[in-house]
Design a protein that fits this description.
Order of helices and strands of chain A: HHHHHHHHHHHHHHHHHHHHHHHHHHH
Distance between the termini of chain B: 19 Å
Shape of chain B: globular
Number of strands of chain A: 0
Radius of gyration of chain A: 26 Å
Number of helices of chain A: 27
CATH architecture of the largest domain in chain A: Orthogonal Bundle
Radius of gyration of chain B: 23 Å
CATH class of the largest domain in chain A: Mainly Alpha
Number of strands of chain B: 13
CATH topology of the largest domain in chain A: MetI-like fold
Order of helices and strands of chain B: EHEEHEEHEHHHHEHEHEEHHHEHEEH
Helix content of chain B: 25-40%
Strand content of chain A: under 5%
Structural class of chain A: mainly alpha
Chains: A mainly alpha, B alpha/beta, C alpha/beta
Strand order of the largest sheet of chain B: 6-7-8-3-9-10
Largest sheet of chain B: 6 strands, mixed
Number of domains of chain A: 2
Distance between the termini of chain A: 23 Å
Structural class of chain B: alpha/beta
Oligomer: heterotrimer
Bound molecules: adenosine-5'-triphosphate, magnesium ion
């Protein structure tokens, strides 16, 4: 009897899963066909939330001179941050480019070794070569301050979240909101609270940069082997001793990884911060954007990429070294360490003394400047002239065959059926919990009064995710199987990930016009690199002997990929899908700037017009709802697959 | 029987249930369900169910059972690394379940310590600092604790490795560090949770000998968990066998092998060469009429293996003596039957 | 190990020393302020908002150039959006908006209600909003510039976004627009598609010109991009007072928008000569287009462009110095 049920239950479940999803889709299609256009919700149905947001905003605006909250809390924060940043900026001008380059290289040398010291020197000199020395230094200062403050807040909170389940449960949704809510939606609010300028830019950056610090610190604390924690507990260590002797030292590597992620997140915010008068490379990108000067925007973007690569490589190497150093003890010999410290101090001294000897050495020599503006502009113009035929065909085709039908299915079916259908799909993919979350999130979008916009955006996001996965799997498999391809393509992927979207906005517009598809293309550029990397990682982590056994039993490359590598990398593919969706969603607002409409446009509109500030915030929250919904569905798909296997 | 000394640790009606609302299970009809049924119906796992035993001072008490039978949970309940759901634990007359956190810390710092299967060493600290860690959390100053740590490092045979980091040592040496760390605090009671199962057989045997030697030298009470019967038989004065959280049998090694309480225990002991565990008491039989009674005498506590030579060389059946009285006879046939693993005739 | 620690401390100390030395350098250079000009009253600091379109940047370029070089003011330029600029009046971080396009809601909030800002009069530019097509279309279909013929040509303007109707492309959401109401009022077979940014508009116009694609779009003057891109305006029924009263349906063209300056009340009362200059600042669409074009197309910095225009047009800007106590 037990054997019978044990055998029957999974197979009947398998039957369910295979047929239930198509059945739901067909039923949905039938409702769409016959109930077309009935029971639709207009944009702005229930607007009380939007009104409420607007009222809060106006109250803050009116009360900012009298309210003690402003006088004793927000204003001092803004003033202090502002003055710290401005004094650090004048410090960098006084140190000159040689001083800064010397200090940065020395720090890299100390924390990450010779090779990374050299990389840092090259990276910092490249700022000058691109002709953006001053702007780069302004950005650098703001990033340092934002990252420092983010870590100051994020690491202790992360420790707390790591040791307390209760706090972790409370903080996770907050972090989700902080990461998904588009900055555009609350940017005017931030300037209202923290004034215009670098202080607000820093705060806006921190909102986005703190979550990775918290998440990775908590993960690091939780990862510490229970055996070691138990051992210290069994010896009678107090909670504090356990934390300082065991958990923190053993989580160090993951925490440094959190520093890395925090830096990357901060860098990705610099163009947005430039919209509220934070000076630096972001401002260069924006000012090139309004002149439609692709080359100048790219040039500034390249400087950001250089900075990101230096930060990324140095912190990654530092994290590996912490691990090695803490385990093996004195790995490096006394002498090499001495040499490293000496060389670092020498570098700093040289860098600082040079401008002291001759003031003109403080500024980067003009004849070394070789910007990339003109060559990039000619490439962009040529491409636009010759590719337009093909790209406009692509736009029309994809819109007609994919975007329009899906959007119509989502917007023209009676809304209760859409909610039910999506919840059922979530149920069959991941189970009861994601189904409830899906229904809740969709009701949230309705409550925001932005149902049609939400459906437009959902359609674009789903199609964007589909394309991202196609590109991701195509390139990811290639990179995963070929070392050479990986080495060749990876720098481009790195650049694609940190290049500010505002840089490729204009080329996208040139090729695809002001359309929904342009929004998708921009999202592809942004989301594909991460997805490609994750897929490649998945392919590479398939054990070599499995692949070998497939090849030795006569499979050709295609069969090996389709029958062995992809199925075995399924877990990673789901992670890639999840990340792909989140990244595509992050570009919804940028889509709003290039004709994609939907929630992105609502957010942009709220940013531009104060009467729509409430709607903008509501649209931002609707994006959060969509994000949480898609995230939970894909994550649960990963989980339920794993448990049934 | 003479009056037993006060037990080092005494356990009564101990339960540990994992899952939602564990306290509702104990004492309810659900407590009678099998573990699988309980999980199906309530989502709870009864890791330890109604376990009772006493451990005498200086005894090596072994707990064994299959994977998942609740051994680790049991021993963690004893030190309250896991909170018991119900039951009493008395350590040297003190109620452990009632102890507050401060008292518990005090006990852990001075009275009992534990050796773990996966060592649980601090990878960022040198051997000497790992060994001294228990003293450090007590607040002992550096010189004193290093002096003490050096002693213990020597005791476990690790001299010369004080300045190494755990990653630079082999598994066996790492577990010696674990052992030294537990010994350094000079506890009354030592807990071992499968300390040697991650080691390969040769090193494992060496470590077992090490524990026996230490037990001989320092005379600590030890509670030792293993799923390896030969280890249990080798180390244990008494052995508790667990299945699905419940105690199945408690007894001396020869009692388990000679008189398994049920098929589960019998299954466990099937592959043990009985002649290595059982004493002559277990095979002595009443003399058959006309049998010669002039054979050599051997005490009843002699392990069969050790008696083989005498029995085989004797011309008449060996007389098994207990307290100067004849318990029964053992001849060639009887010994060979044991060695061949055939069922014995009814024992005395 | 101990030696390493002390070594690290030494390194840190050395760094701190270097930084301190550099700090000392800071205060030294900060002391040497730029020489003030012969102006009678001190000018102080002027905070000017720089909204993100090139024409506005041209206003800022010229005004701040004059403030710095002639009146010795310290000029802070904040690159911010319009809504945020107005907020700056409240926080005291923005003194001047040089080119304001309407924004009735913000006027009510900051001028009427909070009384932190005040209208500082016209700056001379006329915002000319309307519907345009690329010049090649006006040549090929001469009657297309009359709105009555738009329905005849609507099929030319169908795009992937317009749902089978003709597309009318709009730009940045913050710009004044009645387009949806106009389509209703004029009974046109068109649909408004919102590009979302000025970049989307200009790039679409560039493409339409380069690839001879049809495009009907909302646009405005003054506008630097029109120096290179030729367009033709579509005539709509003329504007009469009150014809745009119904926000749902209209049948008349946009009126010309006189663009004005807005300043912070406290700053306006500060007595700085900069206040007079800003009050007197007034130029034409042509002037602005010239400067904007230099900035956008000739890759000049703001100061270079301003200097070139200032050198060429002394009569225009000299008038702005009335009341500053300085006759340049
Ligand atoms: N923290 C926990 N939460 C839920 N269930 C647990 C927990 N710890 C243990 N269990 C369950 O309790 C049962 C007994 O586990 P325990 O670890 O005590 O077994 P064990 O006898 O030590 O096994 P092994 O030999 O594998 O170490 C198992 O079914 C296990 O799944
Ligand atoms: Mg265990």
């Amino acid at each position: 009897m037990t054997i019978l049920t044990a055998d029957l239950v999974p197979s009947s479940r398998r039957f369910d899963r295979r047929w239930s999803i198509p059945v739901v889709l067909v039923a949905w299609w039938l409702v769409w066909r016959f109930g077309f256009g009935t029971h639709n919700l207009p944009n702005g149905g229930p607007t009380f939330i939007q009104d409420w947001f607007l009222r809060i905003r106006n109250a803050a605006d009116a009360g900012r001179d009298s309210s003690p909250l402003f006088i004793y809390f927000f204003n001092p924060i803004a003033k202090t941050t502002g003055s710290v940043i401005s004094s650090m900026m004048s410090l960098t001008t006084n140190l000159g480019w040689t001083g800064i380059t010397g200090i940065a290289s020395a720090i890299s040398l100390w924390v990450a070794g010779w090779r990374h010291g050299l990389l840092t020197a090259v990276g910092f000199i490249s700022f000058g070569v691109l002709g953006l020395e001053a702007e780069s230094m302004q950005t650098l200062v703001q990033i340092i301050v934002a990252v420092f403050l983010s870590l100051l807040i994020g690491i202790p909170l992360g420790v707390w979240a790591g040791v307390s389940n209760g706090f972790s449960r409370v903080v996770t949704p907050v972090l989700d909101i902080m990461q998904i809510l588009p900055t555009f939606a609350y940017l005017p609010l931030i300037t209202l609270f923290f004034l215009i300028g670098p202080a607000s830019g820093t705060i806006a950056t921190m909102i986005y940069a703190i979550p990775p610090a918290i998440r990775l610190t908590a993960a690091g604390i939780r990862e510490v082997s229970t055996a070691t924690v138990e051992a210290s507990e069994s010896l009678g260590a107090t909670k504090w001793q356990r934390l300082t002797d065991v958990q923190l030292p053993m989580a160090k590597r993951t925490i440094v990884l959190g520093v890395n992620q925090t830096m990357m997140a901060a860098l990705s915010m610099i163009t947005i911060a430039a919209l509220i008068a934070a000076p630096g490379l972001g401002a260069s990108v924006i000012s090139a954007l309004i002149k439609l000067d692709v080359g100048a925007a790219f040039n500034a973007g390249l400087a950001i990429v250089c900075m990101a690569i230096v930060f990324d490589r140095v912190t990654t190497a530092a994290s590996v070294r912490t691990e090695r150093a803490s385990r093996a003890g004195g790995a490096a010999s006394q002498r090499t360490r001495l040499l490293r410290y000496g060389a670092g101090i020498g570098l700093i001294a040289l860098g600082v003394i040079l401008p002291g000897i001759n003031r003109s050495l403080a500024t980067f020599p003009d004849r070394w400047v070789h910007g990339t503006r003109n060559p990039v502009n000619s490439v962009a113009n040529w491409t636009q002239l010759h590719w337009y035929g093909a790209t406009s065909w692509l736009t029309t085709t994809v819109t007609h065959w994919l975007i329009d039908p899906l959007q119509s299915l989502l917007s023209n079916t009676p809304w209760p059926v859409v909610v039910l259908g999506l919840a059922l799909l979530a149920y069959f993919v991941g189970g009861l919990r994601p189904a409830i979350v899906t229904a809740g999130c969709l009701m949230g979008a309705i409550l925001m009064g932005l149902w049609p916009s939400s459906m437009t955006t959902l359609a674009s996001v789903l199609i964007g995710a589909l394309f991202t996965m196609i590109i991701g799997i195509g390139f990811g498999v290639w990179l995963g199987r070929s070392r050479m391809a990986d080495q060749l393509i990876r720098p481009i992927l790195d650049a694609g990930q940190v290049m500010p979207p505002f840089v490729y906005l204009v080329p996208c517009l040139a090729l695809f016009g002001a359309t929904r598809f342009t929004g998708i293309v921009a999202a592809l550029v942004y989301a594909s690199p991460a997805v490609i990397k994750i897929v490649a990682e998945g392919i590479r982590s398939v054990p070599a002997n499995t692949t070998e056994s497939a090849i030795s039993s006569g499979s050709n490359s295609w069969q090996t990929i389709v029958k062995v590598q992809l199925p075995m990398a399924r877990g990673m593919l789901l992670v890639a899908l999840n990340q792909g969706i989140i990244f595509v969603l992050a570009m919804v607002v940028v889509g709003g700037l290039v004709g994609a409409g939907g929630l992105g446009f609502d957010v942009v509109n709220g940013f531009a017009q104060s009467v729509f500030a409430g709607t903008g915030l509501a649209a931002g929250l609707a994006i959060v709802f969509l994000g949480i919904m898609l995230d939970r569905i894909t994550q649960s798909a990963g989980r339920s697959r794993r448990t049934t296997d | 029987m003479n009056v037993e000394p006060e037990p080092a640790i005494s356990v009564r009606g101990l339960w540990k249930v994992f899952g939602p609302h564990p306290e509702r299970i104990v004492g309810s009809p659900e407590a009678e369900l099998s573990r699988a049924d309980l999980r199906e119906q309530t989502g709870c796992t009864a890791a330890v169910r109604d376990v009772n035993f006493d451990v005498a001072p200086g005894e090596v008490f072994v707990v064994m059972g299959l994977s998942g039978s609740g051994k680790s949970t049991l021993v963690r309940c004893l030190t309250r690394l896991v909170e018991p759901t119900a039951g009493q634990i008395t350590f040297e007359g003190e109620d452990i379940v009632a102890a507050d956190q401060a008292r518990l810390r005090e006990l852990r710092r001075h009275r009992f310590s534990m050796v773990f299967q996966h060592f649980g060493l601090l990878p960022h600290r040198k051997v000497i600092d790992n060994v001294a860690y228990g003293l450090e959390v007590r607040g002992m100053n550096k010189a004193d604790r290093h002096a003490r740590a050096h002693e213990v490092v020597e005791l476990v045979g690790l001299q010369g490795y004080e300045q190494a980091y755990p990653d630079q040592l082999s598994g066996g040496m790492q577990q010696r560090v674990g052992l030294a760390r537990a010994l350094a605090v000079d506890p009354d009671l030592l807990f071992f949770d499968e300390p040697f199962s991650a080691l390969d057989p040769l090193i494992r045997r060496g470590m077992q000998d090490e524990v026996l030697r230490l037990h001989h030298e320092v005379k600590k009470t030890m509670i030792f968990i293993t799923h390896d019967l030969s280890e249990a038989l080798k180390l244990g004065d008494r052995i508790l066998i667990m299945r699905d959280g419940a105690a199945v049998q408690l007894g001396r090694p020869d009692e388990l092998v000679g008189a398994p309480a049920d098929d589960y225990v019998a299954d466990f002991t099937r592959d043990v060469p009985k002649s290595h565990v059982l004493t002559l008491r277990w095979i002595a039989r009443p003399p058959v009429v006309g049998e010669p009674l002039d054979g050599p005498e051997l005490p009843a506590t002699t392990i069969i293996r050790d008696a083989i030579r005498d029995v085989m060389h004797a011309t008449a059946p060996v007389k098994v003596m207990s307290n100067g009285q004849l318990l029964g006879l053992v001849d060639h046939e009887d010994v060979l039957r044991v060695i061949a693993g055939e069922p014995q005739p009814v024992s005395v | 190990m101990r030696r390493m620690a002390s070594l690290r401390a030494a390194a840190l100390l050395a760094c701190t020393g270097v930084l301190l030395a550099a700090c000392a350098g800071t205060s030294n250079t900060a002391a040497s302020t730029p020489a003030t000009s012969s102006s009678a009253k001190p000018c102080g600091t002027v905070n000017i908002a720089d909204n993100p379109w090139v024409g506005y940047e041209a206003d800022v370029a010229v005004v701040s150039y004059l403030l710095k070089t002639k009146l010795g003011c310290t000029v802070n330029i904040s690159k911010i959006d319009e809504q945020v600029s107005w907020q700056g009046f409240g926080t005291g971080q923005v003194d001047v908006i040089l080119e304001n396009w309407g924004h009735a809601d913000l006027v009510t909030k900051y001028i009427t209600t909070q009384k932190v800002a005040q209208d500082f009069g016209s700056q001379g530019n006329q915002g000319i909003i309307g519907w345009y097509v690329p010049a090649w279309m006006a040549t090929k279909y001469p009657d297309i510039t009359n709105w009555q013929n738009l329905n005849k040509y609507s099929s030319l303007f169908v795009t992937s976004e317009s749902g089978g109707k003709g597309q009318l492309l709009d730009g940045d959401p913050s710009y004044v627009t009645n387009d949806a109401a106009l389509i209703t009022g004029l009974k046109l077979n068109y649909k408004v598609v919102v590009g979302g940014s000025e970049a989307a508009l200009i790039k679409s116009l560039q493409t339409a010109t380069q690839q001879t694609k049809a495009l009907l779009f909302y646009f405005y003057e003054p506008q630097w991009a029109l120096a290179n891109l030729k367009v033709a305006r579509v005539t709509l029924p003329p504007y009469t007072a009150g014809c745009d009263a119904n926000p749902k349906s209209m049948a008349c063209d946009y009126p010309p928008y006189p663009l004005n300056k807005v300043v912070r009340v406290a700053w306006a009362n500060s007595g700085s000569p900069a206040v007079n200059l800003v009050q007197n600042f007034k130029w034409t669409n042509d002037d602005q287009n010239k400067v904007a074009e230099m900035i956008a197309n000739e890759n000049m910095t703001d100061d270079q462009a301003a200097q070139k225009w200032v050198d060429a047009n002394p009569t225009v800007w000299k008038a702005w110095f009335a009341g500053t106590g300085l006759t340049p």
